[in-house]
Amino acid sequence: MNGIEKLERVAPFEWILPREGEMRVPGRIYADEETIASLTREVEEGSEWSALKQVRHVAALPGIVDAALALPDVHPGYGFPIGGVGAFDLDEGVIVVGGVGFDINCGVRLLATPLSRAEFEPFGHRLGEELFRRVPAGLGAEGTLRLTIGEIDQLLERGAAYAVERGFGVAEDLAYIEEGGRVADADPETVSERAKQRQFRQVGTLGSGNHYLEIQAVAEVQDPDAAAAYGLREGGIVVSIHSGSRALGHQIGQDYLKEMTVASRKYEIPIPERELVCAPIRSAEGKRYLAAAACGANCAFANRQVIAHLVREAIGAVAGVRAEEIRTVYDIGHNHVKVETHTVGETPRRLLVHRKGSTRAFAAGRPEAPPAYRSTGHPVLVGGTMGTASYVMRGTERGMQVAFGSGIHGAGRALSRKKAAKTFWGEHVLSDLESAGIRVWTHSRRGIAEEAPGAYKDIERVVRAATEAGINRPVARLSPLVVIKG
Which residues are catalytic? Predict the structure, then answer.
């Protein structure tokens, strides 16, 4: 008995996996029928990875509160499903490396330019070439910023502010970055020398895989009030930067996966699968990982800060737009773990919230949002694919109540990278995108096949499910014009 046959539909876009066996809380999945059919098929076919099984396993971890959550972009990950959320009691709960992942604070920064689509078109191709030349991308790419160990420690502790002080961007950017671009309580001493060495030359680099830099047009405004607050207008040109903590974050994940394996045995924590090794939040090991994860998050904020500076330089060189005219709309991560206050039942509680392939989606009134966004809630930045739309969304009061203020982060994979590479041919994908008016610059044809639009779920379905479930609300639809890939 795997319990999947007991999955209950409680609303058109909400499903419950009842508590049974070792589960301490139920699982709760927000998705449409097609996604649920795909998830159950994984189980029935005995797939090596199954997102539903992972929801069950997360629900069995000590100290988990309310439910193990999966959002509409859910698919299998290491330990936690991607699109997964788990909140834990600070005294009884655990901190889980697999609940964050190896690309700590992978996230998106959205820049708004003063350009209209009509103004952009005459130099669009030239700008794509300039961005491809200026922004290092691809596996092992190195940037122009060279750091010593001491300087890396400062970056890990201070995040985007350190990059600004080094001349990358402006101080005004910091007000529009989650946590002000600096997660508190980061301790560089908890990060290995190996991790720091791997980051010497990677600050300000895009990376590979699903990371991207896109020039996009605001194709449709769906929430005029929120769009006005965010400074978005139909026909306007924006830039999305999707990257994370690069090799440093990956090394932190590797290091602490080993440390948590030992800790799980030490504290006699039953582990339903290897990638869910963990430690009590208040243990020495738990505190060390939380401090190291904060360092990884700050590294990612600094990385996107430097890339944004390079983007401004490129647009200035090609279009004559001054750097101060290119405004940071928001920068937010979607692989992280943070202590937050949420109301459970009718009681406010401090909880440790893991979001793996999920983003904060706080509604209006939360102090964590920039003052300019307090009346709407902050932007939620949702990546699509090279050939489809991306979205700006926002949180809702219902999302605060039932999903710990969490939101979708993208379309979510439908095929693994291995299957996508066997299914699609990079040259054909590029040709199809060019025919659709989307210019792509890439360092890897195989990478293009792995990231083909057909390898992902339909972003429109995912956004609709989040909207109909009431947890997120769409603000604007963005269409890709220029894509830079590793």
Answer: 409
